[in-house]
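Data availability excerpt. The first of two example chains:
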Amino acid sequence: MPPGTAPPPAASPVRPPAVTRPVAPVTVLAIGGNALLNGGPRATIAEQFAAARQLARPVAELVRAGHRVVVTHGNGPQVGFIKRRSDLAAELAPELPLLDLDMCVADSQGSIGYILVRGLSDALPAGSRPVALLTHTVVDPADPAFARPTKPIGTHYERAEAERLAARHGWTVADDAGRGWRRVVPSPAPHAIVELDAVAALLDAGHVVVAGGGGGIPVTRGPDGALCGVEAVVDKDATSALLASALGADELIVTTGVERIALDWGTPRHRDLDRMDAAQAHRYLAEGQFPEGSMGPKVRSALDFLASGGHRVLITSPGALSEALRGATGTRIVPTARTVRSVNSEGSGSGSGSDFGNGNTTASGP
């Protein structure tokens, strides 16, 4: 190099092209509070741990199939137990504070979250860890639901016993779809999940997240942004649909007491539904096929999720969940353009294929 000549600029390092990895789909699995109990005359903690271990297997299947999973849960029986225990304790020891419903929901989130995390821990594949998160759900203080209590909580009673307790404690009670009488409380519509960003961050970190428990701790937000607890229990399925929509989930799975939704339930015309589209679901709702006390809220939540861009909803029982994920049972609700077959009159559910676990958003053949 001649004297005084500047050296040539160093060659820029050659960088490999950026690798874009597909983002794992999000599945929200909504578990009913009753799914953790066997329906016996006396609820136990042991049976709830056993149920959580059973539910862990299909959750692990979803994780192994490449899904990021959020588990939500109901708390209808448990929140009623907590409130009843608080009321009885206050009678025996007046110095103990009474728990309002928002505190009871928070209590149930902690205990059920602990049960589910324990159940999930041993089943999940390496590198995936369950995390339970307390979440608040914002509701409208002017929601008409506050004047019309409809959400059943706690124990089922004979009518005479329910009315005696109502007179003693100032409860509102109602028949719970023919299964007995229960206390009913306000159930306002959910508007936002306060901890949404935290749920998303935990999912991105590879955790299975237990969130939205009991529909979320019900709160209103004041003009200054401060949160205030209210006397209510938000519907778990409605909150699950809202959370799934806000996370951009592909799938919403709702467990309930039956393997498949049916038309003309309990009549000689009973027909199990293998698959239906949103238009059919709207029509069946309008016809009264899905009562408010049972399947109605679940179907409405499914429709809300699909209307916000969700790809598919599966409704089945906890015990049949693994089979339903493989397409052998359950009822699938899909956007109107994607359905092919709606009613399986034989009730077998076979041959429907599965949209779960494989990323396939196309309905199966007839």
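And the second chain:
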Amino acid sequence: MTVPAHEVPASAASPEPTPEQPAASKAGRNLPAAIGVGSALGLGVILVLVYAPMVWVGVVAAAIAIATWEVTKRLGEAGIAVPRIPLLLGGQAIIWLGWPYGATGGLGAFAGTALVCMVWRLFDHGLAATPRNYLRDTAVTLFVAAWIPLLASFATLMVQQEDGAGRVFVLMIGVVCSDIGGYVAGVLFGKHPMVPRISPKKSWEGLGGSLVFAIIGSVLTVTLILDGNPWVGVLVGIMLVLTGTIGDLIESQVKRDLKIKDMGTLLPGHGGLMDRLDSLLPSAFATWLVLTALL
């Protein structure tokens, strides 16, 4: 996990941080803390995948529970009544049922979670009460269920395949390379904002850096770890940048709608756990899809 990707550097006229404040990077983060936390998380992922690959299922399950809690807490603060208990339990079912039953188990659990959440929200104030904002709240609930546990389930489906740990490495290393390339190119050359109304610090130059680094990293991992065709690595790299950028932009817009900077405060220099998973979630699906289809 690394610092946010393809950022436009902050203005040189920005005031220097006071002695009481941690030094922030040009991306607006405490860079030393972000690097330290990201390195620790990355080391943990490596150890799990090398020595106990199936523990990865539990790691993902714990991560999506925390991320779901962060998001539902923020939604509740904004007055959106999301049925948190069935959403959390359903998210765990989506992850764990994918272990014995594969994609069928995860999809079935998602459908069951959706139905239970609809009914829960319909009667959460009792049989005699008139539901308020039912359509809005259930729509947001289903969005969260698809956004977090359903997309995360593809990261656990990968680890169960042949060379499963290697496939997860392809995902993680590709995302890290994309983040690093985007950050470096954005800070050094970023002058043209990509979507300023959604994420003003993302630049086209940073996107180009993400593409270069992600393609190189993905080609190396696909060929050296999975013994695959280099062109598969090129496709994986392109898909990771596209889906990772989309994931960043989706969370940025959600936070803008909620008028917040971060989903939480769990990870110093990063924000909440969901602030680190935003690009990984759609990238997990993209990596699973490409590698399953072509390897």
